[in-house]
C-alpha cells in the first residue's frame, strides 16, 4: 500500500477539503482508505457528509499514563512536587501530602522515579477513541479523537493508521490527512509515508509554516510535491512558492484559484469536486501529476 500524507504547516489553508476531493478522484481508479490523523480536531468525515451514526465502530484506546499516589505510603518528602516539570503536583499544607492537579499530569513518570517510598504509580488512561465507517463514495474513513484535556496525540495517530491498515481490505492507497503544525501528530502522520503533498496558501505565514513542515518531511527523506491553494489571492507570494519549489527541485502539483465553491461545498457537507464540474479537472490533474511523479509505482 502507498501512503500519501497531506499536510500544510498552517491551519485553514484547505487541506482537508483537498484531501477529500483527491480521495474521490483517486477512488475512480484505485482502492483507497482515508485516515484522519488530525486527532485534536477530527473533521475529514464531515467533508464527506458523514455523521457519528455512519461509523461502524468507535472504541476507546489508551496511549498515555497518569500518576496516582498512595497516601499511606507517602513520607511527605516533597520530592515529587519539586521534580515535576509540568507543575502537575501541588501541596496540601494541612495534611502534608502532594495533590495531583486535574488535567496537569502528562504521564512522564518522573515522580514515580524520585519517590523514595514507592507511593506513586502510573496507570493507563483512556485518552482517545478511534473508529471507522464507509463513505457513500465506497471507501473507508478511519478517524481518531483525543479526549478533552488529554495528551498523547502522536501515539493516537499511529493507532489510527494501524486501524486503517486493518480495515482497508487490501487498499492500494492510504490518504493521511495530517494535523497542522510540526508537532507529534504531524511527525507520526509523516513517518512511513511514500509521498507527501504540502498544501500552501500564498501568504507570509502560509509560506513560512509550510517550509517548517517540509523540514520534517526532508528529515525523513520523503519525496513531496506542493499544491498552492487560493493561488491568485497573493500573486507575489504564489511566485515565491514556485521559486522555492524550483530551488528544491520539487513539483508544484497544482495551482488552485480562489473560489467560493470551496466554502459552499463545506456548508453542504460535500467534497468540492462534487459541487462544481470544473473542480473535477483540477483534482484529476493532481492525480495525473502524482502518476507522473511515479508515486503509485510498486
What does it look like?
The structure is a single chain. The protein is an alpha/beta fold and 298 residues long. Helices cover 36% and strands 25% of the residues. The chain contains 11 helices and 13 strands. Strands 3-8-9-2-10-1-11-12-13 form a 9-stranded mixed sheet, with helices on both faces. The chain is elongated. The model has no long low-confidence stretch (mean pLDDT 92).
Task: Outline the fold blueprint.
Layout: E1 2-7, H1 15-27, E2 32-36, H2 44-47, E3 55-61, E4 64-69, H3 79-83, E5 89-92, E6 97-100, H4 110-114, E7 120-125, E8 128-134, E9 140-146, H5 153-167, E10 173-177, H6 184-190, E11 195-200, H7 204-219, E12 224-229, H8 235-248, E13 251-256, H9 261-267, H10 272-275, H11 277-292
Parallel strand pairs: 1-10, 1-11, 2-9, 2-10, 11-12, 12-13
Antiparallel strand pairs: 3-8, 4-7, 5-6, 8-9
Helix pairs in contact: 1-11, 5-6
Strand content: 25-35%
Q: What average pLDDT do the residues reach?
A: 92
**Number of helical stretches of at least 4 residues:** 11
For the biggest sheet, the summary is: 9 strands, mixed
N→C terminal distance: 9 Å
Strand order of the largest sheet: 3-8-9-2-10-1-11-12-13
CATH superfamily placement of the largest domain: P-loop containing nucleotide triphosphate hydrolases
Q: What's the architecture of the largest domain, going by CATH?
A: 3-Layer(aba) Sandwich
Amino acid at each position: 500500500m502507498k501512503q500519501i500524507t497531506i499536510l500544510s504547516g498552517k491551519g485553514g489553508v484547505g487541506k482537508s477539503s483537498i484531501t477529500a476531493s483527491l480521495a474521490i478522484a483517486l477512488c475512480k481508479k484505485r482502492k483507497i482508505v482515508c485516515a484522519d490523523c488530525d486527532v485534536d480536531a477530527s473533521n475529514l468525515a464531515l467533508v464527506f457528509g458523514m455523521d457519528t451514526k455512519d461509523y461502524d465502530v468507535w472504541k476507546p484506546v489508551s496511549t498515555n499514563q497518569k500518576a496516582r499516589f498512595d497516601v499511606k505510603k507517602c513520607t511527605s518528602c516533597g520530592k515529587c512536587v519539586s521534580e515535576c516539570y509540568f507543575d502537575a503536583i501541588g501541596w496540601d499544607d494541612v495534611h502534608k501530602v502532594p495533590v495531583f492537579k486535574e488535567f496537569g499530569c502528562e504521564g512522564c513518570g518522573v515522580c514515580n522515579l524520585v519517590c523514595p517510598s514507592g507511593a506513586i504509580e502510573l496507570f493507563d488512561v483512556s485518552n482517545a477513541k478511534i473508529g471507522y465507517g464507509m463513505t457513500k463514495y465506497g471507501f473507508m474513513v478511519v478517524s481518531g479523537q483525543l479526549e478533552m484535556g488529554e495528551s498523547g496525540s502522536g501515539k493516537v495517530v499511529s493507532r489510527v493508521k494501524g486501524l486503517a491498515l486493518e480495515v482497508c481490505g487490501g487498499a492500494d492507497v492510504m490518504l493521511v490527512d495530517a494535523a497542522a503544525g510540526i508537532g507529534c501528530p504531524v511527525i507520526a502522520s509523516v513517518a512511513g509515508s511514500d509521498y507527501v503533498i504540502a498544501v500552501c496558501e500564498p501568504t507570509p505565514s502560509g509560506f513560512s509554516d509550510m517550509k517548517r513542515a517540509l523540514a520534517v518531511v526532508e528529515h525523513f527523506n520523503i519525496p513531496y510535491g506542493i499544491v498552492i491553494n487560493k493561488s491568485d489571492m497573493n500573486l507575489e507570494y504564489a511566485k515565491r512558492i514556485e521559486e522555492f519549489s524550483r530551488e528544491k527541485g520539487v513539483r508544484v502539483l497544482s495551482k488552485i484559484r480562489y473560489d467560493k465553491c470551496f466554502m459552499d461545498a463545506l456548508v453542504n457537507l460535500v467534497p468540492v469536486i462534487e459541487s462544481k464540474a470544473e473542480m473535477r479537472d483540477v483534482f484529476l490533474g493532481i492525480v495525473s501529476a502524482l502518476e507522473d511523479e511515479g508515486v503509485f509505482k510498486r
